[in-house]
Structure formats: structure tokens, C-alpha cells
Design a protein that fits this description.
The protein has 388 residues and is α/β, with parallel strands linked by helices. It has 2 domains: 2-139 and 291-355, Periplasmic binding protein-like II (D-Maltodextrin-Binding Protein, domain 2), CATH 3.40.190.10; 142-288 and 366-386, 3-Layer(aba) Sandwich (D-Maltodextrin-Binding Protein, domain 2), CATH 3.40.190.10. The protein has 16 helices and 11 strands. The longest helix has 20 residues, at 2-21.
């Protein structure tokens, strides 16, 4: 009986251990109900059915909180962490890389990595930081402007024309206050449009605070130039892009913006934006970035997390994520690297009439500035625009 008891006890321990290893705790920003619902239903169900993996979504109010916890774990030698997979990009990944908080370079081990164009700078770099396979591209985003075609029959096509439009339509445009992500992206894109490709590429290739500071006065000059023509004469900047969208929805603003190209269609489908809403980009360039998932150094269930990451990179998951009703997040996959049948799975997703064609977006796509520039620009914006 003693031997049988020990055997059964060992079996129970082994079974519990295996179940634990099949659990992936996915930490990600929890501020979007569409994204949360897609993770909790489609992703969770598919991982369970295909791989017997239990996905536990760990909602974050700020991804930086998870990164700071991992930094503490590293300092204290905690080998059994509470996160198996983390959604992040930009400054948060830079902090992960600088502090040795990622597991290893695992991207090349994933079967679905064959569909990536690793020469694309928005895929190979995360806000100017080469990830070297320590994170997996998950989705792509790009700055677009959203307009009501009933009020703006011919949207501006260039940065110069956009400046004139703002002046000719006082009170009908503004941007959200940094550090709101979209407001911060707008001033970075305007900066890129102002200084031109050569100077912008130099800032990306040679990170230099002095070079950045030498160029920034052009941005502050332009923002001050348009300020009298903004909503409420620039005396007030909405705190979030959602506030911009509210003002657009009620007709106060005629142009708003977003870092998701499919937002306009999703808002139309929800009945928030008018049916006459459309999207445009400037020929001078539109910022684009990729967001990623990574596996922390102390993840308990690294192999299961790797399976989950490969699934997220797969053709069917990318197509599901692209569907506006689910999320509308653009795919990172290069359709030319897959069969025509598989490419059609993604091409067949109906993005809606308000969403620009992929070739239009790709034509103006420009990679983001290095992550370390962003807090510097945001702080200088406060000094030059708000506190002056």
C-alpha cells in the first residue's frame, strides 16, 4: 500500500506540474475591451483546443509596471516569475534589453517567422532598437488622419497643404496633449515632415541629444504657428485621443487622428462616427511601428509561451486580429512569402470603405524615432508649448 500511495502521489504531483507548464500568463495593457475580448475568446479558445494551453490574461494599466517588476525580480534573483509572455514595444523593450530581462533570441525558432520580412526596418527595429529576435512581431500600426468627407471633400495631401488647411479652418483641428500616445506621435510625425528625410534618417542612425536639440526649434516654431487656429486657440489640448474622437463625433472637429488605420471603420460600425468618415495620409510620410511579444528571463513556462507566440504570428490569428470587429490591428506578415491560398486568407478580410488600402499605407510608411528621444521631445513640448 505504501508503494501504491507513493506512486499515486507522484502521479498527482507530475500531473499538476504538467498542467502548470501548460499555462501561459499573458501580461498586456488592458485598456481596450475589443482587444481583451479577442484575447479571452478567440486566442484563449484556439490555444486550448489546438495545444491544450491555458491562457491567463494579466491586465496591465501600464506596461512599464510589468517591466519594473521584472527589473526587481532580476535584482533579487527571482527565477520563478509571474509572467510568461508580455506585450510591449518602444521604451519598455529598450528597458528589457538594457537590463537583460528577455529569455533569449527565439524568433528564428518559430515556424511562422518564415512569413516575416526581417529586412523591413519596422520589423527588425523596435523604435530604433534592434530586437535581434528577443521579441516576436505581433502587429503593425501607422498614423492616419480621419476626416468627415461631408465637411472636408478634398483632404490635404502634403504637410504644407495640411498647414494651410488648419489655418483656413480655424477651430476644426487639434491634437491631444503628450504624453498621450497619439498626441505624442502626431508631434513626432510633424517633426519628421518638417525636417525632411535626410535629417530624420540621421537622427535614427546616430542617436544624439545635441543633434535632436538642434532640430527641435523647427517643430516648436510650427506648433506655435498653428496654435491660434487650433480648437480653443490652443489654450487647451485634450488629454487623450478618445477626447479627440468625441469632438470629431459631435462635429466640433472635422479631422481627428489615430495610430490604427482601421479605427475610422470600427467607429463607423459602432455608430460613433458618421458614415461619411474616411481616412487619409500625407505624401510626406506617416509614422509606422510594430508591436511585439516577448518572453521574460524568469518565465515559468517558456516553451508553452513560445508555442503561444508562434500561434499569434500565424496566418489565421493575424487575419482574425485584422478583422475590424475583433481589433483591426494590421498584420506583420509579408504576403509575398506565403502561398496564394494563405495570402488570400488575409486579403479576404473586409477592412471597410473607410480604411486605406495596404499599398497606400506602405507607400508612405516611415519608421519611428529611437525610443530614448520620445521622453525628451515630450518634455520639451511642455516647456515650449504649455509652460511658455
Amino acid at each position: 500500500m505504501r508503494i501504491i500511495f507513493i506512486t499515486l502521489f507522484s502521479l498527482l504531483i507530475t500531473t499538476a506540474s504538467m498542467a502548470q507548464e501548460k499555462t501561459v500568463r499573458f501580461a498586456l495593457w488592458g485598456g481596450n475591451e475589443n482587444i481583451n475580448n479577442w484575447i479571452d475568446t478567440y486566442v484563449s479558445d484556439e490555444l486550448q483546443n489546438r495545444f491544450d494551453i491555458l491562457l491567463e490574461r494579466v491586465p496591465l494599466s501600464d506596461t512599464q509596471d510589468a517591466v519594473q517588476k521584472l527589473i526587481r525580480d532580476k535584482k533579487l534573483g527571482r527565477e520563478n516569475g509571474s509572467i510568461d509572455m508580455l506585450w510591449l514595444n518602444g521604451e519598455n523593450f529598450k528597458a528589457m534589453k538594457d537590463n537583460g530581462l528577455t529569455w533569449k533570441s527565439f524568433l528564428g525558432e518559430l515556424e511562422n517567422s518564415q512569413y516575416l520580412d526581417v529586412e523591413d526596418q519596422t520589423i527588425a527595429n523596435d523604435f530604433g532598437v534592434k530586437h535581434e529576435g528577443h521579441e516576436v512581431p505581433w502587429g503593425s500600426a501607422q498614423m492616419v488622419f480621419i476626416y468627415d468627407s461631408a465637411k472636408v471633400p478634398a483632404p490635404p495631401k502634403t504637410f504644407a497643404a495640411f498647414t494651410e488647411w488648419i489655418k483656413e479652418n480655424p477651430g476644426k483641428f487639434t491634437y491631444s496633449s503628450p504624453p498621450d500616445f497619439t498626441g505624442s506621435a502626431f508631434i513626432r510625425q510633424s517633426f519628421m515632415n518638417l525636417i525632411g528625410k535626410s535629417a530624420y534618417d540621421n537622427l535614427i542612425n546616430t542617436v544624439s541629444e545635441s543633434t535632436l536639440n538642434a532640430q527641435l526649434p523647427k517643430l516648436w516654431s510650427w506648433l506655435k504657428e498653428i496654435e491660434p487656429y487650433l480648437f480653443r486657440q490652443g489654450e487647451f489640448y485634450p488629454e487623450s485621443v478618445s477626447k479627440l474622437h468625441q469632438h470629431f463625433s459631435d462635429g466640433t472637429l472635422w479631422i481627428t487622428m489615430d495610430y490604427y488605420p482601421s479605427t475610422a471603420q470600427r467607429m463607423i460600425d459602432k455608430g460613433i462616427f458618421p458614415e461619411t468618415t474616411k481616412t487619409f495620409v500625407l505624401d510626406d510620410g506617416a509614422l509606422a511601428n510594430t508591436h511585439f511579444v516577448t518572453i521574460p528571463f524568469n518565465a515559468k513556462n517558456k516553451e508553452s509561451a513560445k508555442i503561444a507566440a508562434n500561434f499569434l504570428l500565424g496566418i489565421e490569428a493575424q487575419a482574425s486580429k485584422l478583422t475590424p470587429a475583433n481589433w483591426g490591428d494590421f498584420s506583420v506578415l509579408d504576403l509575398s512569402r506565403m502561398s496564394a491560398q494563405n495570402a488570400d486568407i488575409i486579403k479576404s478580410v473586409d477592412l471597410g470603405a473607410a480604411t486605406l488600402e495596404l499599398d497606400v499605407l506602405n507607400r508612405v510608411k516611415v519608421q519611428e524615432l529611437p525610443a530614448q528621444y520620445i521622453p525628451m521631445i515630450e518634455e520639451e513640448w511642455k516647456k515650449n508649448i504649455i509652460q511658455r
